[in-house]
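In line with agreed milestones, work has continued on tokenised descriptions of protein folds. One protein thus recorded appears below exactly as we store it:

>
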Amino acid sequence: RVNSRIAQPVERRAKTVSLTAVIRFSYSTVNVMFERDGKTLRECILELTDDSPDVRAAAAEAIMMMEFGLPHPRATLMDVDWDEGMAFGESVRRILGDSDFPTAEIAPKLLALYRSVKGVDICAMLMRVLHKGSDPKRNVANIAGLILIYVGPAAKELLPELIAMIEAGPEEAEARFAAEVVASMGAAGAPATEAFFLGLHEAGADFDLKYEGRTVWNVFARALAGLAEHDEQLITRLVGLARDDEDTRPGAIITLQEIG
């Protein structure tokens, strides 16, 4: 679940805030300067895919500081720049959306960096900042995954690999991450639809009908709900599954609740 202070979803029918909602939030970035050690956020994103591990590690730490509005690695909550933290997501999205930024070129590199470390759960935002200095390679993987979620439709060339990750099932951190990336693509993520339905079916009665938002399966429901915004036939299919398919019924119900 995303920290509510940096995610304000708009134009979304799903009720639960997820990492994909970060992509759509709107926050004024006026007078917010993203810079650490003389490097801008734009420069840091580029350096995140540099050939040098040291350069990547420094870029990941700088981006992490910007994400939380921390002025330096030793900062405490008393030092947080809340305006910067609130504006981080929109600033990343805007940089990646610039026509002169090599977004499509770095997207495969970001995915490779994320997958270079097993079991990275980018949803664990607090753990990311608490352990920021303990494992530079893991930090890079974490931040690479975070940035990739903001890429949106420009990551569509990665769909075959992302779908394969999703098919591993949402108990896997990689599958949950891939679901978030696909959901951020909007209509371009439609090829992953069947993988999400398969996940709901496999969950069966284990799906959390109480839906407190913490069950790992729910990320699939949120992603499928996002795709349903672009294809109303999916809603009809979900209604049918909720009525007639005992195994898929719990997941279908939760997905329909997400859609609203």
